[in-house]
């Protein structure tokens, strides 16, 4: 396959969530007007934990816009279940420990940790702010899984499978925030 672009059709992957096996993309996208596939690293990553926490805290705002979230991670089902037992989520984590979705959609890792980090002043500022919020929430690193240099990506898919938004991050902080995603969804609805 190849990178997804706006107007492309989302491939119909079969995937496992932390709690279920054998779900398909086309099965889940038919339940809401828009489905967001938020592709991160793994459940033990502190910045990923923060992102998941922010999505969960604002999930009703997504539902109010007829949207749902599936977070794709490199985590094993067992690791995700263990990690989430103290923090149940209102959405599913897709466990792609073999990185088949990452590979098929060409969501590539950075070449090194240095390449994964932002270099521009705005990106560095955003990363430092995020680190501070992670510290304030007391989030700690869990089990390491997958490729540590994996870059994130984000896709909004319409009920018919058409990709209406596609973003491949250039570094670890180059992703829309929850607030920015909600604005994007609102703007799509106008």
Please tag this protein with its features.
190 residues, two-stranded antiparallel ribbon, 36% helix, five-stranded mixed sheet, alpha/beta, 17% strand, single chain
Topology readout:
Layout: E1 14-15, E2 23-24, H1 25-29, E3 34-39, H2 46-57, H3 59-64, E4 67-73, H4 77-84, E5 92-95, H5 100-104, H6 113-116, H7 121-137, E6 153-158, E7 163-168, H8 178-188
Parallel strand pairs: 3-4, 4-5
Antiparallel strand pairs: 1-2, 3-6, 6-7
Structural write-up:
- Helix 4 links the parallel strand 4 and strand 5.
- The mean pLDDT is 94.
- This protein has helices at residues 25-29, 46-57, 59-64, 77-84, 100-104, 113-116, 121-137, 178-188, and strands at 14-15, 23-24, 34-39, 67-73, 92-95, 153-158, 163-168.
- Helices cover 36% and strands 17% of the residues.
- The chain is built from 8 helices and 7 strands; from the N terminus they run ββαβααβαβαααββα.
- It is of the alpha/beta class.
């Amino acid at each position: 396959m190849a990178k997804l672009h706006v107007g492309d059709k989302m491939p119909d992957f079969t995937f496992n969530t932390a709690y279920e096996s054998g779900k398909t993309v086309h099965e889940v996208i038919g339940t809401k007007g828009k489905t967001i596939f938020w592709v991160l690293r793994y459940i033990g990553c502190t910045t990923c934990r923060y992102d998941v926490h922010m999505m969960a805290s604002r999930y009703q705002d997504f539902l109010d816009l007829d949207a749902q979230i599936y977070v794709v991670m490199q985590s094993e089902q067992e690791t995700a279940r263990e990690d989430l037992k103290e923090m149940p989520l209102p959405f599913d984590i897709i466990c792609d420990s073999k990185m088949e979705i990452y590979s098929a959609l060409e969501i590539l890792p950075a070449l090194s940790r240095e390449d994964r980090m932002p270099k521009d002043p705005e990106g560095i500022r955003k990363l430092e702010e995020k680190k501070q919020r992670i510290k304030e929430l007391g989030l700690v690193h869990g089990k390491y899984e997958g490729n540590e240099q994996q870059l994130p990506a984000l896709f909004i898919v319409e009920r018919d499978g058409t990709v209406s938004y596609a973003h491949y991050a250039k570094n670890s902080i180059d992703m829309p925030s929850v607030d920015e995603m909600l604005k994007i969804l609102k703007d799509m609805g106008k």
